[in-house]
């Protein structure tokens, strides 16, 4: 789907991959394709036991919120703002 979206930008992208998969390569592909608007946010749902890196390509983690066995990790372009406390 990422190549088909080339040339478009989005203010919010919600990524909910299958829990057994590592979402990091998809997040990197979104960054490389330039799909997130300059002030946009990327929300990645993932398993609680799978910590995501602070930086993925051009994105910097802002916050991770835990909900039972799931987490939501919020990313933004690294040049836009410093990370918020967890």
Short summary of the structure?
This protein is mainly beta and 86 residues long. The chain has one helix spanning 24-33; strands at 10-15, 36-47, 55-56, 59-67, 70-77. It is globular.
SSE map:
Blueprint: E1 10-15, H1 24-33, E2 36-47, E3 55-56, E4 59-67, E5 70-77
Parallel strand pairs: 1-2
Antiparallel strand pairs: 2-5, 3-4, 4-5
Nearest-angstrom radius of gyration?
Answer: 12 Å
| Unreliable residue runs | 81-86
Structural class determined from secondary elements? mainly beta
Which band does the percent of strand residues land in?
35-45%
N-to-C order of helices and strands: EHEEEE
Estimate the mean pLDDT confidence.
89
The count of helical stretches stands at 1
Q: What's the β-strand tally?
A: 5
For the report, how would you describe the main beta sheet? 5 strands, mixed
Strand line-up across the major sheet: 1-2-5-4-3
Quaternary form: single chain
End-to-end separation: 31 Å
Helix content: 10-25%
- Overall, the morphology is globular
